[in-house]
Here is the input.
Amino acid sequence: MTPPAHRATTANLVAAYPFVAGGSLGKSGVVVGRDLLGGTFCYDPFQLYQEGFLTNPNMVVFGQIGRGKSSFVKSYLFRQIVFGARCWIIDPKGEYSALARACGSAPVKLYPGGRLRLNPLDPGSCTPDLGSGTPDTGSGGNGVDPRGNRQIALLTSLASTCLDRQLLPGERTALELALADATARCGGMPVLPSVVEALLSPSAASAETVHISRGDLAQEGRDAALELRRLVHGDLRGMFDAETTPGLSLNEQMVVLDLSAVYGSDALAAIMVCALAWLQSYMTQAALGKLFIVIDEAWAIMANLSVARWLQASWKLARAHGVANMAIFHRVSDLRSVDDEGSWRVGLAQGLLADSETRVIYGQPPGEAGVAQQELSLSDTEVHLLERMARGTAIWKVAQRSFLVRHVLSAAEMHIVDTDAHMAGHRRAGDNRAGSAGPDGLTDGALAGPDGLTDGARLHGPGAVELEPARLPYVRGRDIG
Ligand SMILES: Nc1ncnc2c1ncn2[C@@H]1O[C@H](COP(=O)(O)OP(=O)(O)OP(=O)(O)O)[C@@H](O)[C@H]1O
Ligand SMILES: [Mg+2]
Here is the structure.
């Protein structure tokens, strides 16, 4: 038998349950918004790592279309800039330009046949703009060249993405040998065209290494070469097919790589991987300080096993290089859609989650509740909230703790985050109502109450206690559910 609910205002509850309240994350770092269970919510992964609260600084953000994922990330980075952080952003929709400009830098717009080139195989040792950094000596101290490892990991992921399947042993070997040939031919600075050339026409020495003829080795690498050729001579040429354009600055606090020109391309994942690899090749610079690397629309690069694996490996490096990665997905099941349930692709996705101790979960559609609960260890209360949170409100899972946070935008930030201009041309600048209808016209059309929940929603505490949202700002408790 279920006992009848005991209803009380949160003002009463705080007196009734004074020791149930958890502590906050502290007041240092960047203000995100309002903790709906009491006070201001601040978050800084570097600070929390130093304090031992987090064991990794990475973050994943989930949410339905138009819930405010990108807005949160943009304003968060904008605020982090004040604290001296650097931000490198992969921007597939071309919506971070206003943020870049507000931070005094111009977005780097890449498009096929354009003027700018990024070399994803950059050794990353000595860009003049990062001159104060310690050069990557190229030796890992164990005889293995970490640059070579990084480059071959990138090439195999790229080839696998383009081929849309796992590589065969012969293909992997052909790629390794082609990279060595290309590196030798280019005086230590390989570029994709030289790798493609070396795949199509391997050296005698490479063929000798694996005891086959040059023709047979060329045959092994032919499919990969033809696919990679697309980035070199095909419709995607003119972005990643030469040495990096001189003078391209990574010295700015805010670096935005705008890939909107290829957003609709079936090769978006490969392009995002190239862009990310280029950024990562400079990650080893010692003087970078606090660095955030953001991948918006990250679902695009989880669709392929090798790329997912590559991304996870990069995630793992975050701690070593003082980098906080932030990846934005729509649904929690984006991580699973890489393969059928139960396969080891799912394991990879889960690995990425395990390496992201901060999970920010905006509203999810009803069908997602089960997956979200399982993958993110949500309590029943949190699952209940998934469909009821208005735009701008999210569940934050930080290590073992949960918070319900309404992200607050200042009027000055509205122009940086506005992606609704085409949907709501009539909206006044500075209108900061969290409950305005989403561009999808879906669930968050309902007006949010002051608590950031859609009308009629209630926060259910454990057992039979219902908290009345109108009084929530006065509750000192933190953990939900
Ligand atoms: N906390 C907030 N308060 C008020 N308005 C907000 C808030 N967050 C987002 N918005 C508004 O909602 C609109 C959509 O937000 P945003 O582009 O961040 O959504 P999204 O979740 O990234 O969507 P998509 O999945 O399409 O990328 C923006 O125009 C922004 O101005
Ligand atoms: Mg977005």
